[in-house]
Amino acid sequence: MSHTTTFQKILLLILLVLLGASQAGSVSAGINVWTSNGPEGGSITALEIDPATPATIYAGTHDGIFKSTNGGGNWSAANTGLTKAGVRALAIDPATPTTLYAGTWGCGVFKSTNGSGSWSAVNTGLIATGIYDLAIDPTTPTTLYAGAFDGGVFKSTNGGANWSEFNDGLTSTRVYALAINPTTPATLYAGTFGGGVFAIQMVTAPANVTISGPTTGMSNHTYAFTASVGPLTTTTPITYVWEATGQSPVTTTAHLTSTVTFNWSTSGEKVISVTAENAGGTSRETHIIAIGAQYQIYLPLVLRQSTERM
Q: Residue 261, exposed/middle/buried by CB under 10 A (0-12, 13-18, 19+)?
């Protein structure tokens, strides 16, 4: 009996050791209490979680960037190519989570396209290099914003390759925080030092509008015409006001295209115009269709009767 008890104790001990080994490197959050998840020895200034792989976490510190692939159980430095250790901000491309951006204190923005395996500076046009925050447009991830310590907000529309100042109306250019409306990404908020919160609604005006449709037709026939707005980044919805010779104006609200129909009872040259408008501006185009008269052919009575008898 004692041998059985001893064997059971040894077996239990082995199982506990194996269980502990299997959980090494994993982490469990405390129930209603905070537990330390590392990395040790540094002040954490930024945190980001991979939206596709939530166990992957990135931490920005005064000593660079650390990465965990097991929910904070273990951390490793991820600083290859990062020439500035002080990282203030991190941002992950929601569509391609292996693409990350890091805002540093004194060296601008760095970008990684391989999940922090390596970094390269992306600072063309970024005249302020103390970056406090980064924000990515969730619907157009190549559009991102950088909040600078002394320089305001900068915008890039090509994944950080180029930057331009984005400060119209911003009276405080020391920007500590940025936030994008997740349901209406055209609205951006900036938290400033001493100036409170600023908001801007970004609207891309229609640069051009084209009309596709027939250029010839017959009277008493219905014809469709479609207006198409460019560029593809034009802010929607768009109001289209259609006008045509001898027709009542037609107003529609749509996205990048709008289709209407017209029918003329008279012949002649008909001018069709459309004005596409949003809060950013308007664009106008015209189109011409030549309408010919529709003739009915009447057979002589004798010939009709002869045809009917056949």
A: exposed
Residue-wise pLDDT tens digits, 130-140: 999 999 999 88
Other C-beta atoms lying within 10 Å of the C-beta of residue 44 = 13
The conformation of residue 80, written as its DSSP 8-state character, comes to T
| Rg (alpha carbons) of the chain, rounded to whole number | 33
Q: Is 116 left (phi over 0), alpha (psi -120 to 50) or beta?
A: left
Total count of domains within the chain = 2
**CA dihedral angle for residue 283, residue 286, residue 287, residue 291, rounded to 10 degrees:** 140
Give this prediction's pTM: 0.70
Beta carbons within 10 angstroms of residue 250's beta carbon = 15
Q: Peptide bond before 39: cis, by omega within 30 degrees of 0?
A: yes
User: What is the distance between the alpha carbons of residues 93 and 50, in angstroms, rounded to a whole number?
Assistant: 9
Contact 180, 187 (CB under 8 A): yes
The Cα 143–Cα 243 span in angstroms is 36
Tokens of 283: 């664009």
Smallest CA-to-CA distance from 111 within 138, 137, 134 is with: 134
Is residue 163 located within the same domain as residue 256? no
Domain shared by 114 and 242, yes or no: no
Omega of the bond prior to 54 within 30 degrees of 0, cis?
no
Look at residue 299 and tell me if it is in a domain: no
CA-wise closest residue to 50 among 14, 118, 99: 99
- The residue among 182, 201, 220 that closes a domain is 201
What is the per-residue pLDDT across 160-190, written as a single tens digit (0 to 9) for each? 999 999 999 999 999 999 999 988 888 999 9
Domain that residue 251 falls in: 208-292
